[in-house]
Design a protein that fits this description.
heterodimer, A: 457 residues, Ammonium transporter fold, 14 helices, 67% helix, 0% strand, B: 112 residues, alpha+beta, Alpha-Beta Plaits, four-stranded antiparallel beta sheet, two-stranded antiparallel ribbon, 6 strands, elongated
Chain lengths: 457, 112
């Protein structure tokens, strides 16, 4: 249909008198613009759905399989309920606080209740997309980020306490962080004149460092599960976790390549970087594990894939394929060390390793983005002469590594303090930790009144 | 009457059932159980955390029979379930006081 319009416009231009020429050219231009908009929008709507798929069922299956059988539904519910709760908060106020025009730390209120967010593009963020598409894409990130934290408090948190904690956390940590990194005029937004110009293509700081560090604080605050390191707490179904990890890998293409906010070459570059990051993560983790324990495990392979994906997230739209592979491999090695060695030494109970994978992998990825970012991939940033600016260390801009470190530090501090405050609020209002007998019964029965596996039915 | 209780390796169940079918044993009860005898368990590692798994999956077979049949049933089970390695399991024989068929109240050997 669009194509027909385009062709008829061209043939009209070819045979037209000069007076009609301007009109015809205008009509060709408008047809081309609307064709690009349609193509970009098609990819972005698909990406929205891919990112939602990462939370449910991706993350829900991944985490659900790692807990004991009596907590499988409770754990899946932590992810699933956020598909509703975070969406509501996002539409009511979150989008405005993250992407509205405000100060360097927080957006304004002009988009509350999605006022003024319609089918017309918002050129501040994505000139070829309906504003609604951009809003919906970012909404999916606000869902999965708090869901990632649930790995740390799994198997012992009250459902009501979890809801209050997460609501407070979105307002205190996520919305400000998203604004600082991606919002117009944000403190860390390199593309909008931020004072500390950071590169974070798809959420290394905003998503993974904030959630990973918040997870560590939550694990420390809640104390270990009863019987931790005394009773066996083996994953009850690595088959579920396997399926979940593969869905995460699949959905991550929307997460990273979608962050190009269009269907152009940058999306293809981010797509390939993402895939190689995941592949490198699998290789790195499996190699470390094989050498250290003598057996390459399936859980190791899927954990490595997530670690690689986490680390490549901030870099995906800035780096070439080979550096992407390297980032993935390093993330696999580093996260394995964090989870299998450092956690054991320190003794905190991050049930499903939200910190060891997302906090550690996110930090590594954020720093390495400063090393490997290159304008051969992303030329959106111009220098004073209007030429593509040098991005990372490989482009001859060593300062970028420092900026990335500063941005990371800011994310860590905000997440640590914010998470602690939110835990306190939830503890005072609802109580955070379940009673000992509820923990023994499992969250499925004590919080939700049902069981994941009913063998008598 | 006797009760024969055999705890065997799960993967040997089909062979044992074949052997029992060949000598005409018609009824049995099979349960998936976990346990250990002198056999040591194994080690599992999840993200660097080691677990010693002592309770291993086994299959329990329960058969009630006339006393004079016990011998051939035992040897059928033992032959079919044997691999010669540690962990093959055990067979126990217990006396049975009474058997009742719920449907029609048959008693004793008639109820088997």
């Amino acid at each position: 249909m669009k194509r027909l319009l385009f062709l008829s416009a061209i043939s009209a231009a070819a045979g037209a008198a000069p007076a009609d020429m301007a009109e015809a050219v205008k009509s060709v231009e408008s047809a081309a613009a609307s064709a690009q908009s349609a193509a970009d929008n098609a990819w972005m709507l698909a990406s929205c759905a891919l990112v939602l798929l990462m939370t449910g069922p991706g993350l829900a299956l991944f985490y659900g399989g790692l807990v004991r059988r009596k907590n499988v539904l409770g754990t899946m519910m932590h992810s699933f309920v956020l598909m509703a709760l975070a969406s509501i908060l996002w539409a009511v106020a979150g989008y405005s606080l993250a992407f509205g025009e405000g100060n360097p730390f927080l957006g304004g209120l002009q988009y509350v209740f999605l006022r003024g967010v319609g089918m017309e593009p918002n050129p501040d963020y994505a000139a070829t997309l309906p504003h609604l598409t951009f809003m919906a894409f970012q909404m999916m990130f606000a869902i999965i980020t708090p869901a990632l934290i649930s790995g740390a408090y799994a198997e012992r948190i009250r459902f009501s306490g979890m809801l209050v904690y997460t609501m407070a956390w979105l307002f205190l940590v996520y919305f400000p962080m998203a604004h600082m990194v991606w919002g117009k005029g944000g403190l860390l937004n390199a593309f909008s004149g931020g004072a500390i110009p950071c590169f974070d293509f798809a959420g290394g700081t905003v998503v993974h460092i904030t959630s990973g560090v918040s997870a560590l604080v939550a694990a420390l605050y809640l104390k270990p599960r009863s019987g931790y390191l005394k009773e066996p707490m083996r994953p009850h179904s690595l088959v579920l976790s396997f399926a979940g990890a593969c869905l995460l890998w699949f959905g991550w293409f929307g997460f990273n390549a979608g962050s190009a906010l269009g269907a152009g070459p940058l999306a293809a570059s981010a797509f390939v970087a993402t895939h190689l990051g995941a592949a490198g993560g699998v290789a790195g983790w499996l190699a470390a594990e094989w050498i250290r324990t003598g057996k390459p495990s399936v859980l190791g392979g899927i954990s490595g894939c997530v670690a690689g994906l986490v680390a490549i997230t901030p870099a995906s739209g800035f780096v070439l394929p080979m550096p992407a592979l390297l980032i993935g491999i390093l993330a696999g090695l580093f996260c394995y060390a964090m989870v299998a060695v450092v956690k054991m030494r320190l003794g905190y109970d991050d049930s499903l390793d939200a910190f060891g994978v997302h906090g550690a992998g996110g930090t590594l990825g954020a720093i390495l983005t400063g090393v490997f970012a290159t304008n051969a991939v992303n030329n959106a940033l111009k220098d004073s002469a209007g030429q593509p600016a040098a991005l990372g260390l490989v482009d001859g801009n060593p300062m970028q590594v420092l900026y990335q470190a500063l941005g990371t530090l800011l994310a860590i501090v905000l997440a640590a303090i914010g998470s602690f405050v939110c835990l306190k609020i939830a503890d005072w209002t609802c109580g955070l930790r379940v009673a000992p007998e509820q923990e023994t019964d499992g969250l499925d029965l004590s919080m939700h009144g049902e069981e994941g596996y009913s063998f008598e039915a | 009457m006797k009760k024969i209780e055999a705890i065997i390796q799960p993967h040997k169940l089909e062979e044992v059932r074949e052997a029992l079918k060949r000598i005409g044993v018609e009824g049995m009860t099979i349960t998936d159980v976990r346990g250990h005898g002198r056999q040591k368990g194994h080690k599992e590692i999840y993200r660097g955390q080691e677990y010693q798994v002592d309770l291993l999956p086994k299959t329990k077979i329960e058969i009630f029979c006339r006393s004079e049949r016990a011998g051939e049933i035992i040897s059928a089970i033992a032959t079919a379930a044997r691999t010669g390695k540690i962990g093959d399991g055990k067979i126990f024989v217990l006396p049975v006081e009474e058997a009742i068929r719920i449907r029609n109240d048959d008693r004793g050997e008639d109820a088997l």
